[in-house]
Amino acid sequence: MALLEVKDLKVRVEEREILHGLNLTVNEGEIHAIMGPNGSGKSTLSHVIAGKPGYEVTDGQILFRGEDLLEMSPDMRAAKGVFLAFQYPVEIPGVATMNFLRTALNAQRKARGESEYSTPDFLKKVREVSKSLNIPQDMLKRGVNVGFSGGEKKRNEVLQMALFEPSLCILDEMDSGLDIDALRIAADGVNALHSPKRAMVVITHYQRLLNYIVPDIVHVMSKGRVVKSGGKELALELEASGYAQFEDAA
Amino acid sequence: MNVAVAKTGKGRAVSDLFTSAEGRLPGSPAVVAVRREAFETYERLGLPHRRIEEWKYTDLRALVGEVLPLAAAPDAAALKRAADAVKAHAITGARKLVLVDGVFAADLSDVKALASEAGFGTSREALEKDAGLLKTASTDAVIALNAAMATDGVVLSIADGAQLSAPIQIIHIATAASASTFTRSQVKVGNGARATIIETFVAADAKAYQVNDAVIVTIGDNADVAHIRLMDDAPDAVNITSQFVTVGANTKLNFFNMTTGAAVSRLQGFITLAGEGSELLVNGANLLQKTEHGDTTLVVDHAVPNCVSREVFRAVLDDRAHSVFQGRIIVRPDAQKTDGKMMIRALLLSDEAEADNKPELEIFADDVSCGHGATAGALDDSLLFYLKARGLPEKQAQALLIQAFVGEAIEQIADDGLREHVIGIAERWLERRS
Ligand SMILES: Nc1ncnc2c1ncn2[C@@H]1O[C@H](COP(=O)(O)OP(=O)(O)OP(=O)(O)O)[C@@H](O)[C@H]1O
Ligand SMILES: [Mg+2]
């Protein structure tokens, strides 16, 4: 059974159809890349998978291990193992990062019927992960993303991903705003999570990221559809020739 | 008299309240005369109602109806229940002064430990001497009623230069159902003194009771005072508290109030900045749910130049709760260079909740910087979604954001342990949400 199956998905935002029948199948262990011009619907797809309100699914299905994802609340999806690293992570003043991480991790574990982490175990885990991602401890004392630089916010998303150990990781433009060193560290973090049981969907505009996180399959999205899929060489092709060739196909 | 009977609407003569209680009210003959006069004032005015400007949004005749009879003095069983409540609500390290059903309970209090650092007596003792405690510059009906009926309270006096090593916590415990308590306390803080005073209002199994409390606070010069009031009375109780605060020169007063209980409550504070160079910080948080009505009415009177006042009032309103904030800043003609700001922030968790705000500036000096602002809104959907996408169920995601909102007020409490205690009360309020 596929880990994620998006079938003929049609989505509207404020009366306007953004996704016009999108298909995507992701199996355990695979790394997928989604590329496509601005406004082609990449973030919309990721939001609908995560369960963000404001999107109307008018047709199609999203199955996660065969279960209807669209029937689940966002927190349920998270507990089942869906994780979206946001393109624009929000700032949450007054909610300390540490408290947030622990509350979220334990909420997911509780929903899955697992025991909650003890404080020392939790702290140990956070320390390990944040160290490997080069995230200073005092950043974790601040409000969630409050005053974080663009790159720090992205690293904080990868940190959460590493902590929650989801089975499907969707990374929406993780590379935007990261300097070259930070990109390498974040990509290493993502690669470290890669396992035969876990799949990654990497949304990006730049082939460069795919040198670090090497995809099995590259999809081109245009105007709300996947218009072409291929191997990692497709990314190089896009880098050379741009999206113009696909505009008509859509 | 007939008029008074009509006012209660329940056939009980208003004066019964007083005559049936009079035998229990402490006081010399002179004090009795003052009480009688106060009661006559109350009888004449009756419970405040919406046609009285200051009570426009908190119509006690409609919300409360009548004043319940005076609670009996606590018996052994009541004191035992109160002792359990003290355990549950005492702040670690604080020196406790406990009032049970309006009567000082020496056995539950830390009078000895306190004696080395502050002067202490009961209001009962003070009233056996003279009526000084009963006099305040207000003709408000609930204050007059308090003067007439006050059974007890604490009289604290912190000497010049005293640096209290531990906070003092005055704990009001209600054990009697369907009865009223009237307490009146006095706190004097000397020049250069440093003190933290906490007031806690809780129930020990009591239901549907009424609290009418009055506190008179006088702070000298160069003092540093933290005053924290935590009103967590039973959900069907009534709490009306009146505060009269006078602040000397170059003094810092940090006042924090949190309302998490009572069906109907009002805190009315009259704070006078009477000495130059002082700083007043007020942070209020009214956490209201169901059909609770919570009113904070504060008058900050800048009587002299060069004082700063900062008031931030927060309300978290769920279900059909109703919050009222009336804030008046008065700047007297002499009070040049006054810096007075007032901010009202409401977090609406339900469409049916209601917030009435009435900020007023009465400025009679020309070289001042004063202002007020207000915001009201729901929880931010994009923040809620972020938290839910990380696995937090709706209620828990809301709770984190509400805590963050209230936390901005709680942060103003300097002491770590005290802050944790207050956060705990807010968390219990969140758990009560349906
Ligand atoms: N809330 C919204 N209201 C109106 N239009 C929206 C909304 N969200 C997305 N859209 C529109 O949907 C289209 C797809 O947007 P989306 O953010 O999914 O694109 P994207 O492929 O992620 O682009 P980018 O590469 O710039 O991140 C755009 O035309 C956008 O304007
Ligand atoms: Mg996007």
Describe this structure in words.
Chain A: Keywords: ATP-binding, Nucleotide-binding. Chain A: Belongs to the ABC transporter superfamily. Ycf16 family. The complex is a heterodimer of chains A (250) and B (434). In chain A, 39% of the residues lie in helices and 28% in strands. With 250 residues, chain A is of the alpha/beta class. In chain A, a hairpin with a 2-residue loop joins strand 4 (56-64) and strand 5. Chain A has a single domain (4-247), classed as Rossmann fold, CATH 3.40.50. In chain A, helix 2 (74-80) crosses helix 3 and helix 6 runs parallel beside helix 7 (180-193). Chain A is globular, with a radius of gyration of 18 Å. Chain B has 2 domains: 70-379, no CATH class; 380-434, no CATH class. Chain B has helices at residues 2-8, 14-19, 29-45, 60-63, 76-89, 111-115, 123-129, 141-149, 381-389, 394-410, 416-432, and strands at 95-100, 103-104, 119-122, 154-158, 168-174, 180-189, 194-203, 210-219, 224-231, 238-247, 252-259, 264-273, 279-288, 293-302, 308-317, 322-331, 339-348, 354-363, 369-377. In chain B, the strands form 2 sheets. Chain B has a 10-stranded mixed beta sheet. In chain B, helix 3 packs antiparallel against helix 8 (141-149) and helix 10 runs antiparallel to helix 11. The longest helix of chain B has 17 residues, at 29-45. Residues 1-11 of chain B have low confidence and may be disordered. The complex binds adenosine-5'-triphosphate and magnesium ion.
SSE map:
The complex is a heterodimer of chains A (250) and B (434).
Chain A: E1 4-13, E2 16-26, E3 31-35, H1 42-50, E4 56-64, E5 67-68, H2 74-80, E6 82-85, E7 92-96, H3 97-111, H4 119-132, H5 137-141, E8 143-144, H6 150-164, E9 168-172, H7 180-193, E10 199-203, H8 207-212, E11 217-222, E12 225-230, H9 233-241, H10 244-247
Parallel strand pairs in A: 3-10, 3-11, 6-9, 9-10
Antiparallel strand pairs in A: 1-2, 1-4, 4-5, 7-8, 11-12
Helix pairs in contact in A: 2-3, 6-7
Chain B: H1 2-8, H2 14-19, H3 29-45, H4 60-63, H5 76-89, E1 95-100, E2 103-104, H6 111-115, E3 119-122, H7 123-129, H8 141-149, E4 154-158, E5 168-174, E6 180-189, E7 194-203, E8 210-219, E9 224-231, E10 238-247, E11 252-259, E12 264-273, E13 279-288, E14 293-302, E15 308-317, E16 322-331, E17 339-348, E18 354-363, E19 369-377, H9 381-389, H10 394-410, H11 416-432
Parallel strand pairs in B: 1-5, 4-6, 5-7, 6-8, 7-9, 8-10, 9-11, 10-12, 11-13, 12-14, 13-15, 14-16, 15-17, 16-18, 17-19
Antiparallel strand pairs in B: 1-2, 3-4
The structure holds adenosine-5'-triphosphate (ATP) and magnesium ion (MG).
Protein name (chain A): Fe-S cluster assembly ATPase SufC
Domain ABC transporter (chain A): 4-248
Keywords (chain A): ATP-binding, Nucleotide-binding
